[in-house]
Amino acid sequence: MDVFSLSYPHQLSDSAILPTVAAIGFFDGLHKGHQKVIKEAVDIAKSSNQQVAVITFDPHPSVVLNKNNTDIQYLTPLDEKIQLISGYDVDRLYVVKFNTKLAQLTPSSFIDHFIHGLNITHLVAGFDFTFGYKGSGNMDNILQHTDKKLLTTKIGEITDHEEKVSSTRIRKALKDGDIEEAERLLSRDVSIKGEVIHGDKRGRTIGYPTANIELHESYFLPKIGVYAVDVEIDGEKYYGMANLGYKPTFSDQRLEPKIEVHILDFNEDIYGQFITISWKKYIRSEKKFQGIDELVGQLQQDEKEIRNFFQL
C-alpha cells in the first residue's frame, strides 16, 4: 500500500492515477462500521477491475474547528490507523491534512479536487459522512455538487445489540472500563503502543517490577484502574497486570496518568523497546494504601485474579 500525504491544493495529476474506487472517512478506531465501508470499496474495485484507495484525514476536524479542543485523544492514532488499513488489500492511502483551507472548501470544490482530481470513479462512505464548508455536503446530495460522472455507495448504519456502532460508543465503553464491549465493537483488541522507559524502580523492591510505558501518540485511554493485559514484545505474547493511574500511595499529585505493567513470569531487560499493551479486563479501581504491606497484599490478590482470568 502506498501512502500519500495531501494538503489543499495537492499536486497529484489524475492522468497519472488509474481509475479508482475509494472509501472515505475519518475512521477513528476503524471499528465494524468503518470496516464495512472499506471492505465494500475493495469488493467493488475487484469486481470492476479498478484500483482501490482509502481517503482519511489528519488531524481530527474538531482540532481545527474547535480552538478549545486542541488535545484530542484517538482510538487509533494516525500511525496505527495506517497499519490497520494496510491489512485491507488497499492500493493507496491518501491522508488529507485537515486545516482551515480545507474546512472552507465548498462541497463542489472538495469533490472536484479530492475525488475527480484523484481519478476516483466510485466513492463509498458511511451514511453520516459529510464534506465541504460546515459539512453541507453528504452522501445524499453529493451528486448535486458535481456535473461529472461519479458512482456512489452509501453504507447504512451498522448496529450491535440494536445500537449504532460508533467511535463515541467505543469511547464510552472504555470510560466505563467495559473492555469486552469495546473489543466487540472494534472486532479486535483495544491496544496501545509505547516505549519502555526508566521509572522510580520501586516495584522491584516489593517483588513486582514494572515496565513503565511512555506513549508517543495521543491515545484515548480506558478508565483509571488495574487491568489484566496482553503484552507483545518482539512478536512474542506475554500476560501482565497493568496499573493505569496516578499511584496515589506514593504521590498526591494528579498529573498525566501513568501506565506501568508487571509482566508475569518475565525477567528481561526491555528498556528502550516499543511494546504493545492490549487491555483485556478491568480488575479494580486505583486505591491509596496505608503502607507497603497493604499494597503488596492487594497486588497478590490482583495477580491471582489475573492468572485465573488467563487460566495460568
Your description of this structure?
The chain has eight helices and 16 strands. The model has no long low-confidence stretch (mean pLDDT 93). The chain has helices at residues 32-47, 61-65, 78-85, 100-104, 107-114, 167-175, 179-186, 292-309, and strands at 2-6, 20-24, 51-58, 92-97, 120-126, 130-131, 137-138, 151-155, 159-160, 163-164, 190-197, 211-215, 225-233, 236-245, 258-263, 274-284. The chain starts with a strand and ends with a helix. Helices cover 25% and strands 30% of the residues. The protein folds into two domains: 2-163, HUPs (Rossmann fold); 190-309, Beta Barrel (Elongation Factor Tu (Ef-tu), domain 3). The chain is α/β, with parallel strands linked by helices and 312 residues long. The chain has a six-stranded parallel beta sheet, with helices on one face.
What's the short version?
With 312 residues, the chain is an alpha/beta fold.
Distance between the termini: 39 Å
The CATH class of the largest domain is Alpha Beta
Helix content: 10-25%
Record field, number of beta strands: 16
Strand residue percentage: 25-35%
Cross-sheet strand order for the largest sheet = 1-4-3-2-5-8
Average pLDDT number: 93
Number of domains: 2
- What is the chain-wise order of helices and strands? EEHEHHEHHEEEEEEHHEEEEEEH
Radius of gyration: 23 Å
The CATH superfamily label of the largest domain reads HUPs
Given helix and strand content, the structural type is alpha/beta
CATH architecture of the largest domain: 3-Layer(aba) Sandwich
User: Major sheet: size, sense and barrel closure?
Assistant: 6 strands, parallel
Shape: elongated
Family: Belongs to the ribF family.
Pfam families: FAD_syn, Flavokinase
Pathway: Cofactor biosynthesis; FAD biosynthesis; FAD from FMN: step 1/1; Cofactor biosynthesis; FMN biosynthesis; FMN from riboflavin (ATP route): step 1/1
Protein name: Riboflavin biosynthesis protein
